[in-house]
Amino acid sequence: MSFSFCSLSSGSSGNCQYIETENAKILVDAGFTGKRITELLKNIDVDPKDIDAILVTHEHIDHAKGVGILSRKYNIPVYANERTWIGMEPIIKTVKSENIKIINANKNFEIKDILVHPFNVSHDALDPVGYLLFNEMKKISILTDTGCVNEGIKSKIKGSHLFFIEANHDIEMLRNGSYPLYLKKRILSQRGHLSNDACLEILREVLMGENEHVLLAHLSKENNLPKLAYKTIYDGLRESGYDVEKEVNIHLTNRDNNTQIFYI
Ligand SMILES: [Zn+2]
Ligand SMILES: [Zn+2]
After folding, report:
1. CATH 3.60.15.10 corresponds to the domain 4-263
2. How remote is the CA of residue 210 from the centroid of ligand 2, in Å?
């Protein structure tokens, strides 16, 4: 076993993922209160004081809300690029200088036995990134909050054993829904979020059909339905010839609770 992965919660109102290896325990994003994240970790028997690092994708509050409090309370190093640090400062307030870790896209770094590769994504934040995580021969990709995905990103995430990938909205639900026009345009833009259809298109290109786990993430409460996201991906992959369930495992994430723990 190389990795254990648990989405503690994911959705437009908050995101926090837990990843464990033999030597390391990390969070990717901490977009809930410290108290809530502590409760979610407790659900899976993890003590927050054992967390080795928090990796931040970007400064939006649904990803950064609890970063500062967790870092201060449990003395956890926080990894983010320079512009994300600037953007999240008003949200997370002061973090101990020794816990400020500045990273750069496309420059690998290590947290104990996890090799981390941050890569640029396209979203209306200062300098948003996704992450590839490597341990032994296994690879996880974390890709949310991006309005589009280029060939470079697809080639990076290809070959992952677990994909944590955004299926934010159904385009028709968003178009016909109650959001103000500017917000609809923002979400649909190249710097917005991936729709169910866009997620499907990416998966069609990157899945090998080798029993990968696909976790559908960051679902919108207003503009998507878990069943609809699941069906779009399930039916779409079947149409493309994947023997879904035998070759690919599709899972939903929850907006207010943890998923099961996935072992890869
Ligand atoms: Zn965002
Ligand atoms: Zn977000």
Report:
1. yes
2. 29
